[in-house]
Design goal:
about 300 residues, Rossmann fold, 10 helices, about 25% helix, about 25% strand, elongated
């Protein structure tokens, strides 16, 4: 299998390393700073090729990739925003079936998450295909070394006349509305938070800390938070650098959807619950009161926030 990973300004997208590992270390990078992005694959990739492309143009990119992909039977892209744009264009040009939203990809077996993760469909392809792999589900393999991979640069011809999306402006992500799978800092709330109003406060606190707000399934089932904010195997699988859990007990359906955060902070009245045991910092306290206190503190430090 071959991973095709679109990059921007030398940065891999969410799920990029996971996709490379799923394909056994074979990867073709395309985008601006593609060679620089390869440094993130140290210890992961064994065969790296790259195409330098300025500006994001998925139709032109797909056309340019054709000459390099004709002999590849299984092509896997991360289900990042750019990967979701590029994958269907490749599938159409290659005249192949597209398996979108996979949680596992092998040459003859693909598992697909459907209905918000409530259903897992298994398909067994008999012909060549294109697939997208959900970020955060598989997890990245531990790096086997610190050596940077050797990158082979490929040439490509881009069709300037291709009917393509036109980038008008690139905006910085808004943590309050961005896809949870892309967020690096998340404040999550669970059944320990007592009312819908507390979740409105949690959302306010998240914005003040430039973080995203998430919730457990019991909360979305109550209708207090939209389903797209649900974290877990039956919601959105995330992989933040920092996760703050307020009033979350840590059911396996939730914790298995957390990926591998670098740091976890948990606030709960039960010191023995699974979420507290997983945390780097466990605070035994009423999460409702802690949120209210934090809101008061951030409200009194606008100068500090602007200076940071």
């Amino acid at each position: 299998m071959l991973a095709v990973v679109p990059v921007r300004e030398g940065v891999l997208p969410a799920g990029g390393i996971e996709t490379v590992d799923e394909c056994g270390g074979r990867v073709l990078l395309i985008g601006s700073g593609s060679a620089a992005a390869a440094t993130e694959l140290a210890g992961h990739a064994v065969e790296v090729t790259a195409i330098e492309a300025s500006g994001y143009a998925p139709a032109a990119w797909a056309g340019a990739l054709l000459r390099h992909l004709g002999g590849e039977d299984q092509i896997v892209l991360p289900a990042s925003p750019d990967g979701r744009d590029l994958a269907p264009r490749l599938a159409v040009l290659l005249q192949r079936e597209l398996f979108a939203g996979a949680i596992s990809v092998a040459p003859h077996r693909v598992e697909l998450a459907r209905n918000g993760g409530l259903v897992i469909n298994e398909v067994r392809p008999v012909t060549a295909f294109v697939a997208t792999l959900q970020p955060g589900v598989r997890g990245a393999d531990p790096a086997s070394s610190s050596a940077e991979p050797l990158v082979t640069m490929l040439s490509a011809e881009f069709d300037a006349e291709a009917a393509d999306a036109q980038v008008v402006e690139v905006l910085n992500p808004d943590a309050a509305t961005m896809d949870l799978a892309e967020s690096q800092r998340i404040l999550g709330g669970g059944a320990g938070l007592q009312t819908a109003e507390i979740f409105a406060e949690l959302a306010t606190l998240s914005r003040a800390l430039d973080a995203s707000m998430g919730a457990t399934r019991v909360i979305t089932d109550r209708g207090w938070v939209n389903h797209d904010r649900q974290i877990g195997t039956t919601g959105v699988v995330v992989d933040p650098k920092l996760y703050l859990a307020f009033g979350i007990s840590g059911a396996v359906q939730h914790t298995s959807g957390l990926g591998q955060p670098e740091h976890i902070i948990s606030v709960n009245i039960d010191p023995r619950c699974p979420m507290m045991q997983l945390s780097d910092l466990a605070i035994v306290s009423d999460a409702n009161a802690v949120i209210a206190e934090l809101l008061e503190r951030v409200a009194t430090r606008p100068a500090m926030a602007s200076d940071a």
